[in-house]
Amino acid sequence: MVFSIFMLPPAGVAAYYNDGQTENFLTSAGVLFVIGALIYLPLKDYRVTLRLRDGFLVVALFWVALGFAGAAPLLSAGVLEMSLVDAVFESVAGLTTTGATVLINLDYLPRSILYYRQQLQWLGGMGIIVLAVAVLPMLGVGGMQLYKAETPGPAKDTRIAPRISQTANRLWMIYFAFTVVCALAYWAAGMELFDAIGHSFSTVAIGGFSTHDANMGYYSSHTIHLIAVLFMFLSGANFALHFLAWQRKTLKHYLLDPEFRAYLVFQTVLVLITVVVLLWGKEYDSLADTLVHGLFQAVSISTTTGFTTTEYVHWPNGLPVLLLLASFVGGCAGSTGGGMKVVRWLLIYKQGLREIFRLVHPNAEIPVKLGQKAVPVRIIDAVWGFFSVYVVLFAIMMLFLMATGLDQVTAFSAISATLNNLGPGLGDVAANFRGVNDAAKWVGIFSMLLGRLEIFTLLVLFTPTFWRR
Fold first, then answer.
1. Which domain holds residue 419?
2. What is the pTM of this model?
3. Per DSSP, which regions of 326-392 are E strands?
4. CA–CA distance from 181 to each of 17, 218, 234 (Å)?
5. What is the pLDDT of residues 194-230, one digit of tens each?
């Protein structure tokens, strides 16, 4: 019922631009509201304490149900002529902030449709923040759960306020503030107000949807591209850190956080490699173009935003593959970014060093530490369990896509792009997923949901133990 209300802003946009979609959005809003009311009203007075398993079900259904609900105006918009799978794919790609798309000729689509796609990503990003910081730690899963070890720094608590509602409100406040400042910066740099608002939605949500076929490459302004880099980087960091920096009026918390330090080092190294290879290959005529395109694409792909300013898939010396692999790292826990999260890779790296040291000193007791605090064995086991399931699921889904007729490069990058909530891939999905067969698109939808729900939150629903009384 609440989600249906968010059909009204696109309806207002349709009325303002007179693009013929006002009735479509109002009808979709009415239908969804009625469906929601039919579910809610018979049980509105029923009160029961939610169990742990109920939490898993609610979290999973949030994205699954709203993913299908969000497809309603896309499916009924005659100008798009979308099939069910295409409409659901586009909706889920928006809400999970993946940014993969099946639409083309964006420059000629009704502005209300373009706005709606951007809004889907913004709403999804808002939900991701609360999910990652406030909800998933209570279920015992997710990247923020790793901070249960009481690590030093500002992120040692899984919640930044005593109650979930307070945590959600404060996170939304920071998220909204980022969006407003980003939109104003885009506007001041020369974007049309409509585009500035739309791109601020997808930038802060780390989504990657654009209102133009050329994506951010539509704008030749280096200023616009650098503004995007700044907000993509900030949105890839833990939003709890942003809140504490704002609350305590200091930036020292960022450097005290082990994950943020690793995130900063990773981004710096990736940008340097990208720029050096582009300079070596003389890909662009000017130094400024080389620096900006290299910086932009490195940050965009590694944070799983998926914006593009140029056809980076044609870059030399394996750079496209390097950037795609960087998306497996993704953003920090508690961010709108996808991927496996920096903190997991940091713990895997530290454990790898420990195992090497053990070869020399087999009897030594060497704890894995984040900062100055030892990480419990239970957390290390959870990280390796997540990594193992991630790899197995990746292989299974990739093989399935190849069985449907996709080539190896396309299948690999399609799963990378969806499971990491990245968006663009390589091969036949470098530009969009329009040419992919329907079976592969359904796998992509499942993959996007898996990636956004940290895998276990969705997989647990498929186990007999979950449904057993």
1. 373-467
2. 0.90
3. 369-370, 373-374
4. 25, 21, 12
5. 999 999 999 999 999 999 999 999 999 999 999 999 9
Residue 352 covered by a domain: no
Residue 47: C-alpha distances to residues 44, 53, 56, 278, 467 (Å): 8, 17, 18, 61, 21
CA 77 to each of CA 1, 83, 159: distance values in angstroms, whole numbers, following the listed order: 21, 11, 41
206 and 97 in contact (C-beta within 8 Å)? yes
How far apart CA 141 and CA 466 sit, in angstroms, is 15
Total length of the chain: 469
Collapsed DSSP state (helix, strand, coil) of residue 373 = strand
Residues 30-68 pLDDT 10s:
999 999 999 999 988 887 777 777 878 888 888 899 999
pLDDT of residue 158: 45
Assess if residue 429 is contained within a domain: yes
**413 domain-assigned:** yes
What is the structure's pLDDT at 148? 35
For helices 8-17 and 111-130, the axis angle rounded to 10 degrees is 160
Residue 177, pLDDT score:
94
Q: Is residue 138 part of a domain?
A: no
Average pLDDT over residues 247-268: 91
Neighbouring C-beta atoms of residue 214, cutoff 10 Å: 13
Q: Are 102 and 433 in contact (CB under 8 A)?
A: yes
Q: Grade residue 164 by pLDDT with cuts at 50, 70 and 90.
A: low
- pLDDT digit string, tens, across residues 299-352: 999 999 999 999 899 898 889 999 999 999 999 988 889 999 999 999 999 999
Torsional class of 343: left (φ above 0), alpha (ψ -120 to 50), beta (otherwise):
alpha
Tokens read off for 197: 């608002």
Q: 91 and 85 in contact (C-beta within 8 Å)?
A: no
pLDDT number for residue 420: 93
Q: For residue 138, name the pLDDT band (cuts at 50, 70, 90).
A: low
Give DSSP secondary structure letters for 275-342. HHHHHHHT-SSSHHHHHHHHHHHHHHHHTT----SS-GGG-STTHHHHHHHHTTT-S-TTSS--SS-H
User: C-alpha angle with apex 11: 123 to 88, nearest 5 degrees?
Assistant: 50
Distance, in Å, from the CA atom of 306 to the CA atom of 296, rounded to the nearest integer, reads: 10
Residue 33 backbone phi and psi in degrees, to 5: -65, -40
- Number of structural domains the chain divides into: 1
Host H or E run for residue 188: helix 164-188
What one-character DSSP code corresponds to residue 155? G
Residue 244 pLDDT more than 60?
yes
* 4: amino acid identity, one letter: S
Q: What are phi and psi of 370, to 5 degrees?
A: -110, 115
Question: Do 440 and 417 touch, CB atoms closer than 8 A?
Answer: no
